[in-house]
Records
---
Amino acid sequence: MSTKKIAIIASKGTLDMAYPPFILASTAAALGYEAQVFFTFYGLQLLRKDLSGVTISPLANPAMPMPVPMPVMVQMLPGMETMATMMMKQKLKKHGVASLQELRDLCLEAGVKFIACQMTVDLFEFDKSEFIDEAEYGGAATFLEFAGEADVSLFV
Amino acid sequence: MDFDKEFDASGLSCPLPILKTKKALADMTSGQVLKLITTDSGSVKDMQAFASQTGNALLSSGEVNGTYTYYIKKK
């Protein structure tokens, strides 16, 4: 049996949307898949050495369960994003869900390949030293080279 | 049931029980049995899926009061 492959594009940089790529990539690797994640646009934030800037906002996120109903006018107040992020992280921890850092480390340990979008790095004038050393840099053709042979291909 | 190694993943949510099971099996030799304990109700289907995709045999599974116990034989 040849090795299965999974190719994932991570295009979002918020706490909630950071989980699916890391969960699927790490689990796929545990199941014996060869896994590759291509981080583009805001998804590039997930390759930062310091993940503390990855947050979640209740604003424009009406499906997010809130302890009390909160009007949009309140959600936009200063500090609400910090509070929502703190509460979400506490909830994740309480329920035994791994932190992003832990999941990312498990991905790397399992041999998941991380490709950072070079165009995004140039576009936002990021400094590559802000990203983890394991990141490789490439473009759409790099992703498609792997995705073209993948059994599963996802855009997150 | 006899087992060679026990791993308690109680309190951990998806996908950690799978990832840690994979790690626990990595240190074992072919034919050895891992006893896995979880409190993740999603593990019922996930452990079957893990076994069928990795070729490790799920010898038995059971639940008592929200605690799930699996015996997995390494391929």
---
Amino acid sequence: MESLTIMPNFIIMAEVSNRNYMDNLYGILRCYCEVIANVEHIDSYRITPESFWKGMNSVPDVDFIQLLKDNTKMEIPKNVITDLDNFKSKFGIITLIGDDCLKVKNEDILTEIKNNTKLNEMIYEYEDDLIFFEGDINTIQKILQNDLSCPVKFRASKVKSYILDDGLNHCLVKAVSPDRALKLLYGKHNTINEENLRSLMNYKKADITDEVINDFMKYLITNINKHFVCMIQVSDDANRKAVKY
Amino acid sequence: MNRSLIIQSDNTVMLLTSDPMFDSVKNELIKFSEIKMSPDTMYVYEITALSIWNAIAIGIEKDYIINMLNDNSIHPVPASVVNYISKWYNSYGVVVLEAHNDKHFFLRVSEANLRIKLKENSVISTMLCEEVKDGFLIQPNHRGEIKSVLMKNNVSVNDKIGYSAGNELSFKIRSVHLTKNFDIEIRYYQEESCSAVFSAGNGVVVLPCGSGKTMVGIRFAEMCQTTTLIVTNSAASVKQWKQSLLDFTDLTEDQISCYDANNKTFAPVTICTYHMLAYKSKGEFIHFNRFIQQSWGALILDEVHLMPANMFRIVASFQATKRLALTATFVREDGREKDIFTLIGPKRYDKPWKDLEAQGYIASVNLKELRVPLTKKDKKSYLEAKNYQDKLDIAVMSENKVEAIRFLLAKHKGEKILIIGQFVDQLEVISGMLNIPVVHGQNSDKEREFYYDKMRSDNINELIASSIANAALDIPGISVVIQISFLGGSRNEEAQRVGRATRPKDCPAYFYTLVSKDTMEEAQNFNRQQFLTGEGYKYEIQEMAMVA
């Protein structure tokens, strides 16, 4: 039974007593909307472009617009549908790959990014449709949403680029391309030492223990299918060479 | 009994518009709660401390409210809501402001704990001259400020000092309009809102654009029968107020003064702008210092949402005067609504736009957002722009907007059309291209009034105007407004501009916003629409096919 009332100002009212809402919609609405109030009879939510894109990142397998259509008591106002379709069309144009790379599908958006002064302060390299940046992805996302009205899609497996020294003169590099893997090693990081490793693995303070490395290896094994992994042999004098892609 | 309310522990009250008792329940609710949202499916109200104090001010008993909620609630009324209502009821009257002697007022505080808190408050303590039994003495010039600070601390002050009578002014509203010869009838909501403010002595009335707020002001002045100061936002509006007073009342020319750069005289009814009143020279409010020496019995603040921030202190000086503030959109982008409430008075009356539209008091307006693609040249510039502002400039000035205007002018040929925008350069260019007169802030008052009069008298059907025409511009008969550029995401400006088309008329009205497609104008316009969609308006979004 339908449980939602969707208003032209993008506010959704949901009946708490409705089983379908509590069982199937409650969690999804919390991902796709800002919560105005969760109280005893009617919960209220507000959809904004930012909340909608956040929802698409958090619960990507849900067709939120269809879900609203299926559960609304009254026809959804046309302006709401038009705007939601518009928000949806922008999602996926820019995708975060690894921890420092954005893949941009749309030529116009790519041009806009290349010309944006604020973004260019954070971007250090372009490679076809790939953009490599330094800095906080949240800051970049904010600029993209504000200046370009375009969100960043995070991959479901939100993995970072990793370089792992196994302590046996081998490095496992996880990156978006073999070239990128090499660049990570030769370009950005002159040496692989414990400090680099900690920083790349986000273990800023903890010691890299065997347990951590084991966990990390397990993590890589379960997530490598979408990424390139290369094995690097590290010589004693720190000259490294890719031996296997 | 038919039960139609959903009452929740966050003090919100929801009323389904489909309910057969909708109208009667709505009229009860507004007496003790504030309307937050009125889309077509459900009205949402909130019970606040202020709404409870307002209810007390108009003589509504606590039990009456609780019984009404119990009788109409689908579910049991949450205990927390009943407690909340009781708490604010009981707090009323704890602090009372009374006359004492020539030099001081007496702030009676009947709770010892509260007296200690007031003494400890760094701001309030500076206004307390002396502690006496059951309270404090304060200086009369702190009357407004102390009430304002206390209200911010959720302490209501029952001000029993009363108001200055001003000098008596006897006049009445005519039965027939002086120049247009129609029968004058005060509408029910105009009467209700005036009575609410008059009986309380102060307050804000929120009514939609085109619903006759000027008439509310005139009726308020008639109720007061005293020397009246009217402050508004523009020179054009000053003239409109004067003309309305002459047309609707038996006041004569010599009883009304428009105080401006050329005329510094006072009359029993004096009208001036906020700018004039707040004008400072060598650190002194030179005009205000003259105004304050006059004896005013009533103060009317028109378009109060536009009152400049430096007017707040000035308004605080008018605490001895009965005060009415008028606005259509009580949304200030600076978030200082609460200051208005405390210095002028609380919101005493609020009527949803769609209610008055359904009753035929304001025109039904079709709202359309037209997304206009950029030309190839504009698009290239947009994509290559270095920053937000450069992009916005290109989106705003898009060449294709001119083509879209041409299309709309042809579609609505013969109708009265106002083209409104933000940027004078853009307006001048379009004026030249389309051969339509333009008015903006760089014109003299006389020039602007010349074109407004031409529109009013049907000598021209099309006019381009800058944001000076956003508010307090009374040109009846405008049935099409084309918005070509705007001030960011301002909800207030959007509502005011739509309001240019809400004056009642025979044909349907249209409000078009031209937005450059796939630019940040889309996001800005999304924000702008939030106030009116909350009032139940629906925007239709269309893409215009243009030759690239």
---
Amino acid sequence: MSNGHEIRAKLNLPLDRFTLSVDLKLRRHVTGIFGASGSGKTSLLETVAGLRRSAQGMLRLGDQLWQDSYRGAFMPPERRNIGYVPQDALLFPHRNVRANLLIGQRRARCQGQDVEALQQEVIALLELDALLERNVDTLSGGERQRVALGRALCSGPRLLLMDEPLASLDLGMRRKLLPFLRTIRQSFDIPMLLVSHDPIEVQALCDELVVLQDGQVIAQGEPRVTLMQASRDAAEFAHLVENVLPCRFERHEGEATLVRIGLEGDGPLLTLPRVSGAGASAQMIAVRSRDIIVSNTRPYGLSARNVLPGVVRRVAAAGKKYLVFCAVDRSAVELAVEVTLASLQELDLKPETPVFLIIKATTLELC
Amino acid sequence: MNEASLTALLLTLQYASLATAIVFVPGMLIAYVLARFSFPGKVFVSALTSLPLVLPPTAVGYLLLQMLATDGILGREILGVDLDILLTGKAVVVACAVMSVPLIIRTARIAFEGVNDRYEAMARTLGYGPVETFLRFTFPLAARGLLAAMILGFTRAMGEFGVTVTIAGNIPGRTQTLASAIFSAQQVGNDHEANFLVLVALATGFCAILAAEFLSLRGARRRKSP
């Protein structure tokens, strides 16, 4: 992302239990705002949107000043050019789907955007064609979220704010909608902030992660390492999934399903228990760093279905444990493995050490 | 039905419509402010706007009479012009307006409170300023409740009696309304006429309340679906 997209936020907002207090410089494409419920994520997003006038501090997007309470500057939400996707979609019940999508087109047109082309693109990407004439209260939860996303994009935003766009959906529907969000990410070169408490979701979509706890930023950085840090520092983030990788269905083999990981199709095959139907169209695969075993010799006589040769790229400390990032088969695919200091020393794990990664088929989850 | 009764009915419809038309928009705006904003003295304003609902109409009439009298705060001596309101059709409109605006404000306030204010926030993020947000989103979303408010206000104006007779009198063909015509018919023992007028009042009142209830119910159901 170019500098014109940088978000600079130095904000204080008193909330019921604590004060939201952040000092952020965000310059990546998609930034995840991660945290337990009630940690101030939504308040932060609403402040960026200009919906919390009581917030103090400074906020700018690129060279545009949105708020500076010391100089008494405040740009109202209607002039900030944002697309906002709330958890509950908030489609206008007095308009049908098409009218909802068109609500923000006036702004897009004012900015000289080709409104029709934009709408066609959004409708195609989000597969909204069949829904256009529907009344919004006949839509399912997933359809509602797609329309809300489409409405935000059709307004030609400079910044997309998504507040747990998938949280109101059941797990199956969430996994079905994730690919849509990935498509949006690929097709729109605008900065996006995604509020989420789903580690898989943030890893599948975000370049950077900001972890909030009681209104404070407790970790910020590359999603995997940041999640790991957070899970060590705060009990509420235990049980996170650190490895979420793009994958493609390859074939079924008896009771097993094989998927190839990696974006370029150069990654290794992974075996997992046979999945049916929708599972075969999954685009991401998730595995916890603690569910992977690392060995410096090729193991044999193991029940684990997946043994992948690889090489250590780097080691990151995360609290009392360590994350060893290993390139698999010298491909671009990188898996994080959690080890203790003792293991790290005993196996002498350092960059360029050849290793074998052992993953039980049952610990792999398609999403 | 004699001609005087017909005239009274037509006059009542005119005066009540005019009064509703005059107070509806200001009443609605007050209701919106009460529903959406908090400010010092809000409880006081809220109570003041509801006062005519609980005061004896004759008391309200008496207060208006004091204000509109020659030496009152809205009288000729202070204003410098004679508004010429007392004992005219204008007085009926004033009476109807004063008595129906509290009902309009209360009902409209409930209608606005029923509209999730996050819809307004959503509209703002899509590029609409506060006034446009109100006109394009809040108003249509509250429309049913607002229509109910208008119907209730109109019906209240139709049935106004106490304040009307106090400041406008009961002059057939000029200030005699449905309510005061019933009173006169009953006073002189014209039961046949009174029965008929009461029937008209019953029918209009019943229809109006039904319509208002229906609209409020539908409105509530519609807003509940997210």
